Each structure stands twice: as C-alpha cells, then as structure tokens.
Amino acid sequence: MFKPVTEICQTVTGVSAPVLFLDTCILLDIIRLPYRYTLDLQSCAAAKNIIDNSSVENRKVWLATSETVHGEWEANAQSVQSELDAEISNVEKTRSRIFSIASDLLNKPYDPGHNTEMINLGSALLSMSEKLLNTCEIASVEEKHSYAGMYRVRKNIPPAKRGKPEAQDCEIFETFLALGHALRQNGFNDRICFVTSNTNDYCLTKKCLVQNDLDKIEAEFVTNLQWAGAIADGRA
C-alpha cells in the first residue's frame, strides 16, 4: 500500500500529468460538506471528476498523499461521519417539530417531505472520501521526512508555529517536498500541487507561508477541491 518516494517518482514520470498531493483535511472535508458552510457544494462533484481523471485508461492527473495522511484519515473519518449523522438527525428533529407546530397552529396538515436520515448520506460521503484516498499513490514516511518535520517543529517553521507544533502536518509537508524534489530531479516538467484547506497553518491572511519551499520545486499551493478538479481536467 505504501511506496517509497523513489518508486512513486518512477511511476509518475512514466506518464506525464499534473500531480495533486492531498492533505488530510481535503479528504475529510468531503464528509463535512453538508454542515461545513464554508465549503463549496461542488466539492463532491469535483472529487468525482478528479477520480475519473486519474484512471489508468484516461490519465489526466496523478493523485498522491503520504502514509501519515492515510493514518490520520483512518483515525478520524468515522468520527467525522458520526458528526455528520448527528447533524442530520438534529435537522430532522427540528423539521418534525416545525411541521407539527405549524399543523396545530394553522389547523392544516403539512407534509414534512423526505426524511434525510434515510438517504444514508454520511455513508456515501465516507465512501467517496475513501475512494479518493485509495486512488492516491501513498508515499511511505522515511526517517528523513520525520527528522525534517521535527526541525520545522523546533524552529516554528510553518505549518508549525509557537504553541502549535503540528508535528504530523510538518511530516506530511516534508514528504510532499521530498516527492516534488525527486520528480524535478528526474526531469518531471508538469505541475506539482499541494492541496490543503488548512489555510490557518499554511497561510497568514492571503500570504502563503510555505511559498519559499514550494518555489524550490516549482510547486503550487491549492486550497480546495474545485481548484484541484480544474487542474485535473485542464481548466486551470
């Protein structure tokens, strides 16, 4: 399941296409979509588009991530789905009370419509998120990635900051940088993108705090799935 950066590099350079390296939050945001109002509703369609464009038969993009992201997803995906299921249940309870009160108050029946709990949306979104993860080339974490990540923590280099070490985020980012560096060293000339919605740790207002790192490997900072999807099908 997990591959050395060198092996992923060999695979990717065999068929040139943009590389999208996915952070944990991007994957979990798919499950959060119905109740996280800052997320664009087109994120689910974008995820499907990205998966379609990464198929072996129709390769327009490479998806990559790290062993650390895989572990974080495994640890958190079910609880995020449970949060969504609880939100949907609360919505249904509120709707039921609204229609019951309206019927009594206005003396006429109201049809509450479809019960959204019956859709099993949480399960469907979890499956979509997992499919996106499993489509990725997953880089194993090497000691040098962990050491480089801990250096960021000690020096408060983003995504780490004083009082907020973010050790796993640093390890993820260093794995991405290692992959990007290996690709460029092997003559890869297509786009390399780090895809994360975690702008709190990677940005200050509109300034990307890791731009110098990205510039060294000619990489881009992408903050949502719609943008990533546009890159995948050549619209951006």
UniProtKB/TrEMBL annotation:
It comes from the Bacteria. Residues 20-202 form the DUF4935 domain. InterPro entries: DUF4935. This is DUF4935 domain-containing protein. It comes from Nitrosomonas marina.
